[in-house]
């Protein structure tokens, strides 16, 4: 990551959420993490090029696929899936 300069990561929700944990596991201490209030905010920050990457959850253990995210990918011209990670359910 150091060759790219500062890495900014948009993630859904406050610190400590599953998205934040997944982001930290993927990018470590060097990245700068910016919380976003909504799924649309994560996509919007990526489309404006304010963020290097965005972290979102495609599925969750309660409801399965998150339809809003699938809709955002269909309508977004700037966002693409780069990688995936799995988290065990936190109780």
Automatic annotation (TrEMBL):
Matching Pfam families, A to Z?
A: PDT
- Give the InterPro entries listed for this entry: Preph_deHydtase
Which Gene Ontology terms cover its molecular function?
prephenate dehydratase activity
Any one GO biological process: L-phenylalanine biosynthetic process
Domain Prephenate dehydratase spans what residues? Answer: 8-91
Q: Which domain of life is it from?
A: Eukaryota
Question: What protein name is recorded for this chain?
Answer: Prephenate dehydratase domain-containing protein
């Amino acid at each position: 990551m150091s060759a790219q300069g500062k890495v900014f990561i948009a993630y859904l929700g406050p610190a400590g959420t599953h998205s934040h944990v997944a982001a930290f596991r993927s990018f470590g201490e060097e990245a700068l993490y910016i919380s976003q209030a909504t799924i649309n905010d994560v996509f919007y920050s990526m489309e404006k090029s304010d963020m290097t990457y965005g972290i979102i959850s495609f599925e969750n253990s309660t409801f399965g696929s998150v339809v809003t995210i699938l809709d955002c990918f269909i309508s977004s011209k700037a966002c693409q899936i780069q990688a995936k990670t799995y988290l065990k359910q936190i109780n």
